[in-house]
């Protein structure tokens, strides 16, 4: 599986690019949004990739972040959403926009993508709404853009193990609350309202992870 490509951008097409990697050219299909954000021909470029394998076809699809790649893979699980429709949705909304639309049940936003009708947009919402908080909870770690330079880290000696501390649970709960708050703010909720909702549900669900906190907070924030 080819998970990332880094090289020189040799050519730009209407929906794909050619990336030269040490003398080998790879055709990578991208959304309009991704294409607009790429550098000029001749410059270094890097994209996370997903390989579509069929009996008579091999296609690489490129994404600027792992978050967008994860949304592409999730969109493809919806019946009727192929690679073309997934790239159209991501091109119209971007990764964060897709998460916002699905989490809030905004089928009209999904329908704004070229070639996506109302029935398909509604199906995307229905099938992925329960899964969206999980992707959003991991969004901070997945949103980093691919870089053209490969960084090689030197091995680090393992730190000596220390006994488990009583505050490890508190740190984990604080991290889950912070991730949930960040996701809600990205959805457009005010900082104060989001923080209050997260605080309340975190008190009710002390062992919940970020995804569960997001779901519970969204229910609390939903119009009565």
Automatic annotation (TrEMBL):
SMART domains: HhH1. Homotetramer. Forms an RuvA(8)-RuvB(12)-Holliday junction (HJ) complex. HJ DNA is sandwiched between 2 RuvA tetramers; dsDNA enters through RuvA and exits via RuvB. An RuvB hexamer assembles on each DNA strand where it exits the tetramer. Each RuvB hexamer is contacted by two RuvA subunits (via domain III) on 2 adjacent RuvB subunits; this complex drives branch migration. In the full resolvosome a probable DNA-RuvA(4)-RuvB(12)-RuvC(2) complex forms which resolves the HJ. This is Holliday junction branch migration complex subunit RuvA. It comes from Rhodobacter calidifons. It comes from the Bacteria. It is found in: Cytoplasm. Residues 172-224 are annotated as: Domain III. Its main location: cytoplasm. Residues 1-64 are annotated as: Domain I. Residues 73-92, 108-127 form the Helix-hairpin-helix DNA-binding motif class domain. Pfam families: HHH_5, RuvA_C, RuvA_N. Has three domains with a flexible linker between the domains II and III and assumes an 'L' shape. Domain III is highly mobile and contacts RuvB. The lineage of its organism: Bacteria, Pseudomonadati, Pseudomonadota, Alphaproteobacteria, Rhodobacterales. The RuvA-RuvB-RuvC complex processes Holliday junction (HJ) DNA during genetic recombination and DNA repair, while the RuvA-RuvB complex plays an important role in the rescue of blocked DNA replication forks via replication fork reversal (RFR). RuvA specifically binds to HJ cruciform DNA, conferring on it an open structure. The RuvB hexamer acts as an ATP-dependent pump, pulling dsDNA into and through the RuvAB complex. HJ branch migration allows RuvC to scan DNA until it finds its consensus sequence, where it cleaves and resolves the cruciform DNA. Belongs to the RuvA family. Coiled coil: none annotated. Keywords: Cytoplasm, DNA damage, DNA recombination, DNA repair, DNA-binding.
